[in-house]
Description:
Blueprint: H1 4-8, H2 10-35, H3 45-57, E1 61-66, E2 70-76, H4 83-92, E3 106-112, H5 138-154, E4 162-168, H6 176-182, H7 185-189, E5 193-204, E6 208-209, E7 214-216, E8 218-227, E9 231-232, H8 242-253, H9 255-260, E10 267-276, E11 282-283, E12 286-295, H10 298-318, E13 322-331, E14 334-335, H11 338-352, E15 357-358, H12 369-373, E16 378-386, H13 404-419
Parallel strand pairs: 3-4, 3-5, 5-16, 6-15
Antiparallel strand pairs: 1-2, 2-4, 6-16, 7-14, 8-12, 8-13, 9-11, 10-12
Helix pairs in contact: 2-5, 2-13, 5-13, 8-10, 11-13
Bound molecules: zinc ion (2 copies).
Amino acid sequence: MPPHYMGKSMQIDELIRTEIANKQNDLITLRRRLHAMPELAFQETKTAALIAQRLRAAGLKVEEGVGRTGVVAVLEGAAPHPGRAWTRNKQAQGGHAPDDSPNGPTLLVRADIDGLPIHELTGLPFASSLGTMHACGHDGHITMALGAAETLAKLKSHIKGRIVFAFQPAEEVVQGALAMFDDGLLKKHQPDRVIGLHLWNQMPAGKVFVNRGTVFASADAFRLTITGKGGHGALPHLSVDPVVASAHVMSAVQTVISREVPPNEMGVVTFGQVHGGSAPNVIADNVTLEGTIRAYKPEIRQRIFEAVPRIAQGIASGLRCEAKFDHLYGSPPVINNPEVAMWVAQHAAAVVGEENVGEHEPVSVGDDMAEFLNRVPGCYFLLGAGKPNAAPHHNARFDFEESCLPTGTEIFVRAALDYLQ
Ligand SMILES: [Zn+2]
Ligand SMILES: [Zn+2]
């Protein structure tokens, strides 16, 4: 089925094309400005101020400080919908979701805004000199969502319903989405659908990947504290050595993947940090191990979560130590709703051509877009942004092809206009 607006109005189609074409330079300028000013998770105050200022200038209703440093903006369609209040009341009484209401639903567009603690080495004229870096492409995400907001604001006489733009902080520590929910984002705006994108420079620019299922893995950080009894390195029998116990724990925990996760499922347990001890001849009191857990399926994630503390505690206690497991933070796997994905794929095809839209293998990185998708039917798509010999995401030499900026912006605009017709 073609997008709704297409048969109805070639004029809107033309309008979108013109608006996006006129916006290309502005998108690149904005991206470069953002690229030079990356801010870490929950510290994105200047970024948020810039976003808020642009959104206000475009006539949107803006709320700052949502989820500490997030920004929310609402674009009301110009066509009034008396049915909307009715639908909300119905829903409050446990009625049907408003998606099928004639009054126009609410679409949420989510973009993450934080940078990383990386010293940039790209040598780009607009490189960050702050010791922080947009090495994941979130400068591009902000640019495309802002570009879409500004474009849609100009086209609001064609919009029936509302679009909520959520500029989410702290994605890199997968805590920003929940922080925004704690501040009432979903309760207040009750979105019916959510969409977002991640640009991906390991895939060619001009391609769009829309998965009907899993996109990214779950991503959880944990800490194991192995406690023994410190003492003299020459008198181990008078101590309980947590360093030796930690070595056995780390080794044994690897069997979670090789012996407990089914061979055809994906799971990762990585210990990224080991801290313990103070001198070669001193037995430490305790050792802390920190690591990450990844899985594509909630049930596999659950299984690993159950197994890691069990094995750690069993091994530690056999060696007279204690092991304490703490879940530091995390987010579930990013899984798209198949219907929303098919709908987004249609609009991607309208922008880059059907032959350039496909699915991709799930990637074992995480993203707290998962928290949105767990609560609202939605789709997170990957936008090809590859440059020749590009360094990967989170690398100090990371960069992406800026021609993806109008592409992503246009997909947001088309999807929103279609959904809110
Ligand atoms: Zn990242
Ligand atoms: Zn990212």
